[in-house]
Target: Epoxyqueuosine reductase
Amino acid sequence: MDFNQLAQRIKQWGQALGFQHVGITDVDLTQHEAQLQRWLDLGYHGEMDWMARHGMMRARPQELVPGTVRVISVRMNYLPPNAGFATTLANPTLGYVSRYSLGRDYHKLIRNRLKKLGQQIEAEVGPFGYRPFVDSAPVLERPLAEKAGLGWTGKHSLILNKETGSWFFLGELLVDLPLPVDTPVENQCGKCVACMTSCPTQAIVAEGVVDARRCISYLTIEYDGVIPLEFRHAIGNRIYGCDDCQLVCPFNRDAELTLEADFHCRPSLEQQPLTTLFNWDEDTFLSLTQGSAIRRIGIRKWRRNLAIAMGNAPYDEDIVNSLSARLGEDALVDEHIQWALGEQEKKRLQINVQLLPTGTKRLVRIIEKGLPRDA
Model:
């Protein structure tokens, strides 16, 4: 068998299936094991216990699927047209949803395409061992993608590609065929630290290292508990995920748009008022997020995130009424509603102060700063 020729055909088949880039690498990730262990030891994975549960298997694909000698790594663009990043982030009354989740959940779509790629290879070479993965197993997909030449690891820990930035999903096909491997590309971040300095919660604690416990994506998606007070203002109107570190990246300025209609924005999620989203009942939530990655966080975390965003929004009587109407329904959500109502009350008082005569305003400011003990 001519494996060089087969590798070229695999790349052609992959592109025909909708992957913008297909690369091949071996399974040696030993150089990443110490870094992974240190990240886990520092607790940077937060409550994502599954990150530590499988130990070093994450860096050993051949242990996950015995017989694996190569990984076919693929990427698929997801940036939708008319994404409206700036418009939504700049309007604190709208809910900001991370761009990757505005359309259909990518897991099944990419996994099915990888399965088809495996079947196409099988039709060519006969029975062989293969298994597709898309965030569905303990695999270090980013180091594999980097070794396969799909891009380099940016300082935000995401894979960057010179032509298309970082707006893409990754997937892997583990195979037992000794295919020729591709050459990694050079890291081109240089001295740029825009992603690190722009993170609202300073979650990028070192180049390529993210403390998930501080990351807005983790807090609004993976984390099940009460969101710490120190992060609530920084969350702003981000109700599911965060894109800030990607938005400021120079390589994302001319990123390619997705060719997949399934990744286009759903009208029910695109630039929607916070009150509209918060007022969804559970049936509406399940219906409008069907087939979306958002559905897996459930209605209570959805409302928890929205309550924080509503607390960060300008004073609005409709926001106060919507929040108050849901008090007592869920203890987790109540914690955030109470905080949001307190934030709204502060803003209402500030508005009232602005309407006072100048002299009275001055007196109010003195009172706010604190009166002397003998006053």
Notes: The CA atoms of residues 102 and 267 lie 9 Å apart.
